[in-house]
């Protein structure tokens, strides 16, 4: 393909994507297809001769899009947002066009250096401690997801302690978290070889708004020390998946510091909001942490994937994850003049992800990014007010950011019936195709989650979503 053919095909693809966004509100938000639908529509083997791009795009329209759940729809209120934007899309396009593999500085110096600069920018926007900047002993690195972020710091923490007590003591290592911590930690422990019986999942409840209690952590650590185990890692959360619970970082950090425990803060969803000065207090105490993570691809208008991880001591990552085969050796690396991000992550290869984050920061500016987040919070507040005005519903957790946890009340004293009622309500509203929401369980109560965060969502979408919920609730209640 020459430059003119690229230009022609590129224009057609941009037109297709622009039309998709123009029409996105008309699609059922949750795909309504049945499992295996696509195998019935596509050939069983690769074509022998090339197809035209127009024919491929026709198939995307007719066969692929019906099987897509539209995460960028203004009526998508499930899970947490996975933001896209023109700035992010353009950065992704440019990264794909350049298509370099920047595992070490020498393989594309701009990729490494831009990543260091952009993550320093973002750290300053979040008012993170200087210890997390690349100008000191720490620094930032873009991982694919928060799951990768927690894995690499868990490995660094594991190896740091095993160098002191001996590698045969891995069976004594203990990890701590609350029962609201993302399941990524469990998977990281499985990969890292932490014994399942040494993973302390500490119970939370509504009395602390589902935040981890420092007292329960202290008690668990004391018990483990008494029986000869080695506490070495705590994962705290700012904006938990179920309810946006916020763990008390300062108190937890003091406990970890006094016990030599690596303290990781997972702010995958809510971290973005802390660029707003009035919300920065949610990460007060982050100065006690060894590592901090937020997903720019969730609520920061940066196309998936782009998960920012900062550490205070980059040497801990490098000691755990570095490899140095002959074919990768070069003068800049051997003289310790540069950062090689291959030693800060699991895979060797890495994409030029900093390019899209750089473009988002430049093309929006911090002021517009703050306004974007504040708008979603205001929309969620409005939805919360609508729920509170309907006596058939109740709010189940504080709305810290842009997530509202609520449920339809069932017959008094019959939790089993109430749980089934809300399960049925979830299925009913999602089956309409008008909106998509998801659920969790809080204090054994089946809970509906309404997360505002899609870039195109306006107040009218929130109001219409509430009407859909009310209408389906009325239908269910009449059938009781």
TrEMBL record:
This is Tyrosine decarboxylase. It comes from Cinchona calisaya. Keywords: Decarboxylase, Lyase, Pyridoxal phosphate. GO terms for molecular function: L-tryptophan decarboxylase activity. InterPro entries: Aromatic_deC, PyrdxlP-dep_de-COase, PyrdxlP-dep_Trfase, PyrdxlP-dep_Trfase_major, PyrdxlP-dep_Trfase_small, Pyridoxal-P_BS. Signal peptide: none annotated. The modification N6-(pyridoxal phosphate)lysine is found at residue 298. Belongs to the group II decarboxylase family. Pfam families: Pyridoxal_deC. Gene3D superfamilies: Aspartate Aminotransferase, domain 1, dopa decarboxylase, N-terminal domain, Type I PLP-dependent aspartate aminotransferase-like (Major domain). Its cofactor is pyridoxal 5'-phosphate.
